[in-house]
Amino acid sequence: MTNQQNVVVFDLKPRGVRHVLPPSSLPVAKPLSRQDIKMLLMKRFETEKAGAKINAWVDSMRASSPTRIKSTASLPPETDEKSSWIVHHPSALSMFEQIVAASKGKQIVMFLDYDGTLSPIVEDPDQAFMPREMRAALRDVARYFPTAIVTGRCRDKVYSFVKLAGLYYAGSHGMDIKGPSKSCKYKKGNQGVLFQPASEFLPMIDKVYKALVEKTKSIPGAKVENNKFCVSVHFRCVDEKSWAALAEQVRSVLNEYPKLKLTQGRLVFPLSISVFLLFPVSLG
Question: Same structural domain for residues 202 and 166?
C-alpha cells in the first residue's frame, strides 16, 4: 500500500475557465508556505481585478456613446427616482424666474464647459470651433458676470478657440488656471494671474503621452491628445469591437504611473494627475 501525497491545486485562471486533471497526472509538489499561498492568491486577485476593470471601462465607453442615447420619445415613463433627481437638479431654462429671484443681492459667477457647451461635439477635437453667435453671447455674459471656462483641454488650446480676453480659463481639469489682472481686467496683453500647482509633473505627462501614442497606434481611429497637465485618449472614431483592446492598452500605461488617475468623459479617456488641492481663486 502506497501513501498518496495530498496536492493542493490553486485555480489561478479567471472564474469560468477551469481544467480538472486526474491526481495521477499531477506532479509531486512540495508543500506551499503561507507566503507562497499569499502570492498566488494575490496574483489571481490582480488578474481578476484587471479583467473586471477593463469590463467596467468598456461598459462606461458604451454608456458615453451617442448611439446609446435614446430619444425623448423612446424614454420610459418618468419614474420616482427620475422625478427626485429632477427636483434636485432642475433645468435652468425651466427654473429661470426662480433663479433670478434667488440671485438678488448675490454675486453671480459663470462656470462653463467648452466641448458640447460652447462648441458642438465633433469627431476631430482640433476642429471644435465655437460659432460666432456663441462667442457674441459669451462676450455679453462676461460683461456682467465674472466668467470662467473649465475644461480638460489644454488652456492655450481653448483660448485659441474662444479668443476672448477678460475671461478666466481653467485647463487640464483645473491644473492650469489663468485669469485677467484686476487692474486691466478686460484689456488684451495683460499678464494676469496664473495658477499651475502641478508643474513638476510636466515631464511625466510628456512620457505618458508618448507611451500612449505608441501603445494605441495599432488601433484605427484612436487619437491621443496632450493637454499639458493631463492626457486624453479619444475613441470616438474607434470601432466598438476594438474598445476592449484600447482600454487594455490604456490600463497598461496607467499601471506604470500610480500618480495618474483615469476618469470617464464622453467618448474620451482623460488621464490626469491624482493631486487634490484646495486653493483660493479670486474672481473679483
Answer: no
